[in-house]
Write a structure and sequence with these properties.
By secondary structure, the chain is of the alpha/beta class. It is about 45% helix and about 15% strand. Helix 12 packs antiparallel against helix 15. The longest helix has 24 residues.
């Protein structure tokens, strides 16, 4: 169901339909892996009834990644213990308040990779979140529950976060649209942090028209006054089937990058996964070190490994990557003096089986997602179907969240 179809339902019918879909469209195990909180039918119907008349997102149900606070609900951030060490939320996060003012209806909270520190949708406490209709294939993460719920058509709209790719990877794996904002925006400042210098807020929709409605309402984006100029960057280390599908999909948006641009960007992006791992790891350790020893047994095995790795990052390692980070940011600045947007693959492969969720796979993912993260740039995520029925995606990277390129690209893509 699209935004407009949901808006045609009466409040009681909309509440029943959300909860029916959550019950019927996924298995009990996947409901546990997908949802952190679902309201009662009565409470949800009341929320639909309270949506401000005439508001741009009136009556559209959305799910909220459990990194954002809602008064009266505990925030676990995919962990087993966060409410033990963090005060109970007394107010709603700013993003929740703003969505309510725009008429969107909070229909529950979603699970995620523990503390948002991963890209594969795994969670030792609540179960691994899978791509709907592809059991055993990871939804990607960390915004796993939000992406999977939209892909399963339980709701048409869901909120996620993206630090190193946690909207872009699940959007690609689940075959849906996504939007990643910029670090430091008000919508992310009061969320549970992972690495504040890189954390961003964003969202998912199933269709291009619904994404267009969302960005128009939430960002004020409009179409360009001239045809924007962009290029497509084909990246190494991408599976051949994915490279071909992304190349064909990108042809409707931009021509291939010229040889000089391709060489410059590939050179600066080559160490992005390493740079991101060091800098984001240091920030994450700064936040978790006060809990890491006392609550070690309450972290899942993957988080214990990440904590050990982040704790071991030395000042010399940070100093070693800083020049490459500055060079990468300068490359982005130079690029946007000539171009309005860059298109590149979101992922090097389709959704992974559990056995393939390895550190090597994580590095391959970060090789594509970390360049925009290190540049602090907004990204529109576009799904790209594969012949197998699985999907991958494109990143349309811009330098401004209100860039008219976003609306232009969605109009060109249709549905």
């Amino acid at each position: 169901m699209t935004f407009s179809e949901w808006q045609q339902l009466a409040p009681e019918a909309a509440a029943r339909e959300v909860l029916r879909r959550a019950e019927v469209f996924v298995s009990p195990a996947q409901r546990k892996a997908m949802f952190a909180v679902l309201p009662s039918e009565g409470a949800l119907a009341a929320a639909f009834s309270a949506a401000p008349p005439g508001s741009p997102l009136r009556g559209i149900p959305y799910l909220l990644k459990d990194m954002f606070d809602v008064s009266g609900m505990p925030t676990f951030a995919g962990s087993s213990f966060l409410p033990e060490v963090r005060p109970a939320p007394a107010t709603d996060s700013k993003l929740v308040r703003d969505l309510g003012a725009f008429g969107a209806v909070l229909a529950g909270k979603t699970q995620l990779f523990e503390f948002a520190w991963g890209l594969t949708g795994e969670n030792a406490h609540y179960g691994d979140c899978e791509v709907p209709r592809f059991p055993g294939r990871t939804s990607g993460g960390s915004s796993s529950g939000s992406a999977a719920a939209v892909a399963a058509d339980i709701v048409p709209f869901a909120i996620g976060t993206d630090t190193g790719g946690s909207i872009r990877v699940p959007a690609a794996f689940c075959g849906i649209f996504g939007y990643r904002g910029m670090p430091g925006e008000d919508w992310i400042k009061d969320a549970v942090p992972l690495a504040p210098g890189f954390d961003t807020a964003g969202w998912f929709t199933r269709t291009a028209p619904d994404m267009r409605t969302a960005v128009a309402a939430l960002l004020g984006s409009h179409g360009p006054s001239r045809a924007p100029r962009g290029c497509y960057l084909e990246m190494p280390e991408v599976d051949p089937e994915v490279a071909q599908a992304c190349r064909e999909a990108a042809s409707g948006l931009a021509e291939d990058a010229d040889s000089a641009t391709r060489a410059e960007l590939r050179d600066k992006f080559a160490s992005a996964a390493e740079i991101y791992g060091v800098l984001a790891g240091v920030e994450a350790w700064r936040l978790h070190r006060k809990w890491a020893e006392k609550y070690r047994s309450k972290y899942g095995p993957l988080l214990q490994e990440r904590l050990d790795r982040a704790k071991g990052v030395s000042p010399a390692q940070v100093a070693a990557v800083e020049p490459s980070h500055e060079a990468l940011k300068l490359a982005w600045t130079k690029f946007f003096l000539t171009y309005d947007f860059l298109v590149m693959p979101s992922v090097p492969f389709p959704a992974l089986a559990k056995a393939d969720c390895t550190h090597a796979s994580r590095l391959r993912l970060l090789g594509l997602t970390a360049p925009a993260s290190l540049g602090g740039l907004p990204v529109l995520c576009v799904p790209v179907p594969l012949a197998s029925g699985l999907s991958v995606g494109l990143q349309v990277i811009v330098n401004n969240p209100r860039s008219p390129v976003i609306t232009w690209a969605l109009d060109r893509l249709g549905d």
